[in-house]
Design a protein that fits this description.
Blueprint (H helix, E strand, L loop, with lengths): L3 E7 L4 E4 L7 E10 L10 E9 H10 L5 E14 L5 E14 L3 H10 L36
Parallel strand pairs: 4-6
Antiparallel strand pairs: 1-3, 1-5, 2-3, 3-4, 5-6
């Protein structure tokens, strides 16, 4: 069985592209910073995990996900490889997202973002082949009613 469950913060806004063709498919890529359970020398450490989602899941990420937001995802690990421009073989590992959801309230997310220093340097991420919950209830974003399968 290949099943992954992660909770972490987005290191940057999702990068969304659309496939070519008559029925364009949305493809969203983002990186999650997932805290490790144990700290090394008293410092918090995190793993930076590349994620990719497709279709409606990707469109949702494009519309609602922003840097610093805490989300939970489930999916499967997918590995691959490609040869870069220098002729070296590069191995990739990413999570293909099947489900994703908010992991904290909007107010908690906003207060987290306000408390973080703003850096001009890019967040660390893996190369891609083509280039603590607060206990509050989750706020549902405006306009999501149109996407729900029931009313």
């Amino acid at each position: 069985m290949n099943k992954v469950i992660l909770m972490g913060r987005l290191t940057r806004d999702p990068e969304v592209r659309y496939s070519a063709g008559e029925n364009a498919l949305a493809i969203a890529r983002y990186t999650l910073a997932v805290d490790r359970r144990f700290r090394r020398d008293g410092e918090a450490t995190a793993d930076f995990i590349s994620c990719v989602s497709f279709g409606r899941t990707a469109e949702f990420a494009e519309k609602y996900f922003r840097q610093g937001l805490k989300i939970a995802v489930t999916g499967r690990i997918q590995t691959g490889s490609y040869t870069n421009r220098e002729g070296q073989k590069v191995y990739t590992t990413e999570v293909v997202v099947e489900e994703q959801e908010f992991a904290e309230s909007k107010s908690a997310s906003d207060s987290y973002a306000a408390s973080r220093p703003q850096h001009s340097e890019p967040a660390p991420s893996m190369p891609s082949p083509d280039t603590a919950s607060t206990g509050d209830f989750m706020n549902i974003p405006d306009g999501i009613d149109e996407e729900l399968p029931f009313n």
